[in-house]
Amino acid sequence: MVMNDIALVVVSPAGLETAKTLAQSLPGSRIHGLAGRVEAEVSFSDTVVHLRALFAAGTPIIGICAAGILIRAVGPLLLDKWSEPPLLAVAVDGSSVAPLLGGHHGANALARSIARTLGISAALTTAGELSLGVALDDPPPGWTIANPASAKSVAAALLAEEAVSLEVEAGDADWLASIDFGETGDHAVRITDRAITPDDNELVFHPPVLVLGVGCERHTPAEDLIKLAMDTLAAEALSPLSVACVASIDLKSDEAAVHALAAQLGVPARFFTPEELEREAPRLATPSDVVFAETGCHGVAEGAALAAAGAHGALIVPKAKAARATCAVARSPHPLDASVIGRPRGRLFVVGIGPGTPEWRAPQASAAIAASEDLVGYGMYLDLLGPAAVGKSRHESALGAEEARARKALELAAEGRAVSLVCSGDPGIYALATLVFELLDREKRADWNRVDITVVPGISALQAAAARAGAPVNHDFCTISLSDLLTPWESIETRLKAAASADFVVCFYNPVSNRRRDQLPRARDILLTGRPPETPVILARQLGRPGETVEVITLGELSPDKVDMLTMVVVGSSETRSFATPSRTWTYTPRGYGKKMDGRE
Q: Cα dist. 450→191, 245, 250, 348, 413 in Å?
């Protein structure tokens, strides 16, 4: 099964292996670990506070711990069973799984999935599911209950072996095959794609059998397309709750109105190429040569609706028009799985994961990686993701192959995939964000330009080094890369002289390599023209990773032998100073507060 943003909460090292096993089988899951005890994608220091925050946010929780921990944590939050997210307890050794809350809202299905993964039996206790084989208030994905309050009375009638009838007006009732329905009865289960008002003793399900095919002009206001679609459904008494997806041509995959309509209906937006839509031409009710000349297919709205509904689907509402948009409706004889229809709009996350430790990884970065199917990056950076990379397709390239990585990420996203281009530190600081946008700007590729791109910031090496050392960049500072592979040394030298003259704190990226040994001494000598040799210099290596070291030397002592490509070099200004406490040395750059404290300002 697929459920987004599942929290695998681990409070002791004994449960980590079980969590890793489950993470491989549960797409969208992330391991949350107790700080100092469990290395995880998301760290927390207070178990109860963290569990309550997850539960209040509606996040499905799988606790790899004692059930009592979970119960005591969320107990004060229990108010409405219909709004509670799944909560499950799994033994640390993987020997048992029990859904505690939300059994009919995904917890039972999660428990069965976990049981299959671990080779155990799920401890299900919900009466309806045990006796009937299904839970009436937990229909398959994509299905909707029109009147969920009636599920209890209908289930009670079935458990009491009273006659309950089944009426199937749309789709099928395969998932209810374990129930012995009667031809008539005081209660009824009705499956329909019509917009109806249920009877008092009737439980109504809306199956995902309808497809809204749409087309629109560029920058059509979202409210115009939404009104057209809703009016079209209402005119035919069709329920919006039976819409499986909104479909259109891939030329519109970045059209805001199409995505706004999908969001309004709570369904995915899916897209087809002109060639795929043109294959539906024989089934179109209103083919258009004008549309063909513009798009390469004879009908967008009708073609997309039919393509999404499948070969056995039928057009039930021909193209309806508004001033700037069109809409058509197709029906499938069977419930649709929108995840395998057409393709979604591609998404590219240019993600900064910080120096490496999960504790320094932003929640947005973890969420982006969890939402991605593909991870593109330098092998070491992907390795730093640890459990977060489990179950993802990895696309690695060598350290100098930055352009190849950016191109690969754009190509995958253009195919409709969700991709993370993984960078260490911050993606906009000597990383790949600028390369992505430069490629877009230079090549003007329509498929790349339709990709939904998000740059996710990360903690940069300079921030991490400064935090470890104290506060050396608390005043004006600059960053300079000493690599002359992409920037001529003359330009670097000009910037060094300016930094020396302006007395900036200077953070050196790419200070040395096996082939570049003389740039750092030359940079040191230039900075010495503007600050004394006693100026503090911070050498921070392997920040946030095993083998981390932070050393403070003087500018006069700085040499290539003390530095490598994994070292962040922070050179203080003439004002930067270091002082020792009994436990360690701190380095900071004053910002003028001393004058205030002395009463001079």
A: 38, 19, 9, 11, 9
